[in-house]
Amino acid sequence: MEYKRFKTKQIKVGEVLIGGDAPISVQSMLFSKTRDVEACLEQINRLYFAGADIVRLACLDMADARALREIKSKSALPLIVDIHFNHKLAVFCAEFIDGVRINPGNIGSKENIKEVVKACKQRKIPIRIGINHGSIEKQFSDKFGYGIEAMLESAKYNIKLLEDFDFEDIKISMKTSDTQKTIEAYERLRPLCDYPFHLGVTEAGTQFHSTIKSSIALGNLLLKGIGDTMRVSMTGELEEEIRVAKAILQDSGVQKSGVNIISCPTCGRIQSDLLKAIKIVEEKTKHIKEALNISVMGCVVNALGEAKGADVAIAFGKNQGLVIRHGEVVAKLKEEELVDRFLLEVEDEVKSREMKH
After folding, report:
1. Is 345 marked as a binding-site residue?
2. Rounded CA gap, 161 and 145, in Å?
3. What is the pTM for the complete model shown?
4. What are the structural domains, with CATH classification, of the chain?
5. Is 282 part of any known ligand binding site?
6. Which entry of 105, 146, 162, 296 is 20 to 30 Å from 2 by CA?
7. Is 93 labelled a binding residue?
8. Would you say 115 is a known binding-site residue?
């Protein structure tokens, strides 16, 4: 089945385009206190080098808001402010920030939202309508509970509200902590509007659980052409959020970038230290941004077949092995020489592609 992405309106967060034909961007959120400027900048730099496109920060009070102004002036990435309960903080931050995320369920009255919209409209910055199943407005939760129906009604209401204020620089999220409900919420809203969607599973848990939940929900939606920007939410992680998000994009086939490592699960046929080799290859290739398929196999049973579909491959045997590039054997070497030669071929493949660009 051919992948076909749902066509959405395009908005801009800093210099990052979201929606339309723009690449699907990857986001994260800082867990340091926003008033701690140095800690925030340190985390932003970590995310920058990990490959994040956008960063979100919480703003609890005016101390955070003032610190955020300084952080924005020094940030290597576009910043979105995350506001709950106090719309005045959103109005203040709209003067210098790249985007605002509000939760309609707790931001207050229609007049409060109107003030936020006015401030964002003046600076031409987008608003994310963040619908969370746990914080639906009372008018919808009383009637529909806290399920998908309430989320849909809240989303439709708030989209119309912003449109009535003549504002369309909108993106939308429909997050729950349940994978099936998250998928259904996004699927059901998608035909009803053409604003870009921010994908995520909220409160997804630790690295292990979040990786699984996010892979199921976000991968499912991406394969159906749904999603324009995304965050893999993990408790207490930064770089790992970006790593998993990019892997979901890569392994779903939706957006190719970086190295895709194919390796066997190991079995009794292996006569080499495959685990050691894989660790070295992962570490030495993590900087590569070029979309590249590489194969590291422990024996010849599947290695030659996998090598045909890989850009560069290594096939271990007993005390020796082959290095293969585009299906052709380029070297037969002793086991201790294989990984170094393999990595040289990988780097040469990257350089040759860069020259073609």
Report:
1. no
2. 21
3. 0.84
4. 11-251 (3.20.20.20), 259-356 (3.30.413.10)
5. no
6. 296
7. no
8. no
